[in-house]
Amino acid sequence: SISLRGTSASQTGVYWNGIAINSALNGQTDFNSLQASGFDEVEIRKGGGSALLGSGAIGGAVNLKDKVAFSSQRMLMMSLGAGSFNTYYGHLKALFSTEKLFFKFAGGAMNSKNDYPISGTDLKNDNGAFRNYNFSSTLAYRLNESHTISLNTVLFDNDRNLSGTLSSESRAKLYNRDQRLLIDWKYLGNRYTSSLKAAFLYEDFTYLFDKNVKDQESYGKSNRFIGKYDFSYFLKHEMFVKAGMELENAKGNGSSLSNAEQTDFTAYLLFHQQPWQGFAYNISLRAGVSSVYDIPFIYSVDGKYALNRFLMLRAAFSTNYRLPTFNDLYWEPGGNPDLKPEKSLSTEMGLELSQDNFKLGGTFFMIKSEDLILWRPVSNDFWQAQNISEASNYGLEFTAEIHQSFDAHNFKLKLQYDYTRALDDKTQNQLIYVPEHKANSILDYSWKKWNFNYNLQYVGEVFITTSNS
Questions:
Q1: What's 216's DSSP letter?
Q2: Helix or strand run (H / E) with residue 252
Q3: Residues 205, 219: contact at Cβ < 8 Å?
Q4: Of 425, 430, 426, 403, which Cα lies nearest the Cα of 414?
Q5: What are phi and psi of 52, to 5 degrees?
Q6: pLDDT at 56
Q7: How far apart are CA 85 and CA 118, in angstroms?
Q8: Which pLDDT band, with edges at 50, 70 and 90, does 226 fall under?
Q9: Phi, psi for 360 (deg, rounded to 5)
Q10: CA 404 to CA 179: how far, in whole Å?
Q11: Looking at residue 121, what is its pLDDT?
Q12: What confidence tier does 431 reach under pLDDT thresholds 50, 70, 90?
């Protein structure tokens, strides 16, 4: 799962071609189910984005994009790999397009025994084996110069054992399957563009408490229908309005859910202007209604100002929200029907220095949350969804990037460091599973048709108890 700025995976919006795909059951996206190489672009946005994107984009958002390009091209790519702990994978990607038709297919599989040694002990990850299959496709047709219709599909199938902890062994197993279907009709004009989307998302799971005992299981599934329309209109070259509306109906049931259903309708409006050279700002508003909760009215303001041709100042302020999921409300045991929706305020300020082959940036952020929803351990084997009265996230993010070329030799180095404090305001303890320190570095070297890269990640210690013991 992904976490941005110390928030949970449920507070990070994940989108597939603009459609929210976080589970209706647990509110998260399992990144093991996403075949990254099957997408053309992965866009990561840090900071509150609920005003534009909707429920859950408190810490940030990730958008997985399939690009459509109508031109004469053919492509076939196959990848095979092997790694430690009996890990093997294969991936196939094919593309065919003309001036009117576009088709892309991607499919892959991964299998691993995943029995890595546990640091500081003589133990291994004995119940971590997994295998999964992933298939996706994009079919698009250009009706004329202005209108395009496309169809996107995804199928994911997963079978994995669930690892235990140092204090308790596990023989649990999880089967889950995701299916997604999206139809998108786009119009592109001189001053006006629009997109009309209809999506169907299906997920199901079967959880075995003991993989050797077939009749001890829990199961569940959900269906979501989403209709979304948005448009942009340019009043002038430096001024435009963007607006949209979305209707979603979600249903869930299973051994711990009893025919749960929710319908939400939301609408948003964004105004963008660049009043003079080097300065631009956005104002966004969002409101909606739900069959379960009162969706709060939220807004955001952000802007950037070029101090000179090398230095850029950025600032943003937003209000955000997240509605409880079906599991948060109704899961047995641990669901809590008395949960309140989360609300938060988010602000940030940053500087960015950029030259021809060098970029350096720094950002300070702060998030204040009320009624934060977290699953917390009540005992060793029982967790419950609870509202924390207030929580504060704040920290610093630093990035540096440099690239240099010598004839056919190309070097690129990217460094990132995040310092994050995520505190329960009542106890002043760090929230569980949030590290204070994270760092990442990527060194990339290419020569002719060869490419080499080295990636190093560091994650500081995390607490797994609310007492921080």
A1: S
A2: strand 239-254
A3: yes
A4: 403
A5: -95, -35
A6: 80
A7: 13
A8: very high
A9: -135, 135
A10: 43
A11: 87
A12: confident
Give me the sheet containing 60-65, strands edge to edge. Answer: 19-20, 12-16, 60-65, 41-46
Least confidently predicted of 108-117, 394-403, 419-428? 419-428
Mean local confidence (pLDDT), 100-114: 95
Q: Which among 304, 298, 297 has a CA at the least distance from the CA of 273?
A: 304
| CA distances, 149 to each of 8, 104, 123, 186, 187 (Å) | 35, 14, 54, 6, 9
Q: What is the DSSP letter of 330?
A: H
Residues 6+ apart with CB under 8 A from 212: 171
Q: What pLDDT, on a 0 to 100 scale, did the predictor assign at position 215? A: 80
Residues 6+ apart with CB under 8 A from 236: none
What's the pLDDT band for 257 if we cut at 50, 70, 90?
confident
Residue among 219, 134, 114 at smallest CA distance from 174: 219
Residue 259, sorted as left (phi over 0), alpha (psi -120 to 50) or beta, turns out to be left
**Residue type for 206, please?**
T
The rounded distance, in Å, linking the Cα atoms of 212 and 205 is 17
Tell me the two tokens of residue 62. Answer: 């990730």
d(CA 311, CA 427): 40
The single residue listed with the structure tokens 């299981």 is 217
Contact present, 242 and 192 (Cβ < 8 Å) = no
Which amino acid is present at 292?
Answer: V
CA-closest candidate to residue 249, choices 271, 222, 276, 287: 222
Query: Locate tokens 């093997």: which residue?
Result: 88
pTM for the full model?
A: 0.88
pLDDT, tens only, 272-321: 999 998 999 999 999 999 888 788 899 999 999 999 989 999 999 999 98
